[in-house]
Amino acid sequence: MKAMTITLSDGLEDWIGQRLEDGSYATASAYVTDLVRRDRERAEEVQRIKALVEEGLASGVIEMDASEVLDSIIAEDSQLNA
Which of 34, 39, 75, 79 is deepest in the core (most CB within 10 A)? Predict the structure, then answer.
């Protein structure tokens, strides 16, 4: 594990101190590690959603209305489960 030094404003340092005092985290390092991990997970989820949006946009527009799409899905599901 590699050590890193960061500079925080007094307000942020106080906030971290409060999180340690209330027992949410054992150390400032554990708190920052958790924040970075959750930020990375959020960024990965944003990328996944962007990819799904791109896939949807690339798939084109269908000419059916919503009820026709639903009927088609139900019919397809019925055939698969028959």
Answer: 34
